[in-house]
């Protein structure tokens, strides 16, 4: 056998070996398109959250209410677009509740500091969200395909787990938004109401406060006992 033939066969075998290695180590990670309109709207809500808090602290009530209303509307719109045009993404199931919770947490802290929201309710809302946040980190870690690196952990195009809000959680989010929106305008609204109507409004807010506290507790428990709240997408 000539030297040339040996070299050619060696090159051929080398190419075959490389091809086999690539097949064995082929990246089977599930990725998806995260650059969608619903995700863009959700990101604007994430950005708006600290601005709303700043406006509350600065007592810019009307601007705070306007931006808060924008966040509530886009929360509905991005979900509708995702369902209507089949633009649902796994990262959307994560950052959508994250945007809601960012707004809730920031507004809760700022309103509590301003004396517009009772401390015990703030503890319930924040305590529940902290526990859910820690749970999200845990499920992301255990569901992430190896290698479990820092960069891959925050690469949200890698779909590893889905979060499905429970029904009571959806109701609780809506009630919290409505209650916090009411707290934002309360300081201004009572100045335009007479003593009689102010008393009725404050009494209604007290009952509303108890309803929100109850749904907050129930929604937290629903994630603990629901089997469908988190779905692992990887083995």
What does this structure look like?
- With 235 residues, the chain is mostly helical.
- It has two domains: 31-114, no CATH class; 117-234, no CATH class.
- Helices cover 75% and strands 3% of the residues.
- The protein is built from eight helices and two strands.
- The chain has helices at residues 3-24, 37-57, 61-84, 90-113, 119-143, 150-153, 167-192, 195-225, and strands at residues 161-163, 230-232.
- Strands 1-2 form a two-stranded antiparallel ribbon.
- Helix 2 runs parallel beside helix 4 (90-113), helix 3 (61-84) packs antiparallel against helix 7 and helix 5 (119-143) runs parallel beside helix 8 (195-225).
- The protein is elongated.
- The termini are far apart.
- It is a multi-pass membrane protein.
- The chain crosses the membrane at residues 206-225.
- This is CDP-diacylglycerol--glycerol-3-phosphate 3-phosphatidyltransferase.
Provide the β-strand percentage band. Answer: under 5%
Tally the helices: what do you get?
A: 8
Largest sheet report:
2 strands, antiparallel
- Give the rounded overall mean pLDDT: 82
Straight-line distance between termini: 50 Å
Shape summary: elongated
Domains, number: 2
How many runs of DSSP E, i.e. beta strands? 2
| Poorly predicted tracts of residues | none
Measured as a percent range, the helix fraction is over 70%
Rg value? 25 Å
Widest β-sheet, arrangement of strands: 1-2
What is the helix/strand order? HHHHHHEHHE
């Amino acid at each position: 056998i000539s030297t040339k033939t040996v070299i050619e066969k060696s090159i051929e075998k080398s190419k075959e070996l490389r091809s086999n290695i690539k097949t064995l180590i082929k990246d089977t990670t599930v990725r998806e398109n995260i650059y969608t309109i619903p995700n863009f709207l959700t990101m604007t809500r994430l950005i708006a959250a600290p601005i709303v808090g700043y406006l509350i602290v600065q007592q810019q009530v009307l601007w705070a209410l306007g931006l808060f209303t924008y966040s509530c509307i886009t929360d509905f719109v991005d979900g509708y677009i995702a369902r209507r045009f089949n633009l649902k993404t796994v990262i959307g199931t994560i950052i959508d509740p994250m945007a809601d919770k960012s707004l809730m947490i920031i507004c809760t802290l700022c309103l509590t500091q301003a004396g517009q929201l009772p401390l015990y309710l703030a503890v319930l809302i924040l305590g529940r969200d902290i526990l859910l946040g820690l749970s999200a980190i845990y499920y992301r870690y255990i569901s992430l395909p190896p290698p479990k690196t820092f960069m891959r952990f925050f690469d949200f195009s890698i779909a590893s787990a889905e979060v499905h809000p429970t029904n009571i959680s959806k109701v609780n989010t809506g009630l919290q938004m409505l209650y916090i929106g009411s707290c934002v305008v309360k300081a201004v609204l009572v100045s335009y109401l007479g003593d009689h109507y102010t008393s009725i409004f404050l009494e209604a807010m007290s009952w509303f406060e108890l309803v929100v506290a109850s749904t907050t507790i129930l929604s937290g428990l629903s994630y603990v006992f629901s089997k469908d709240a988190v779905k692992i997408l990887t083995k």
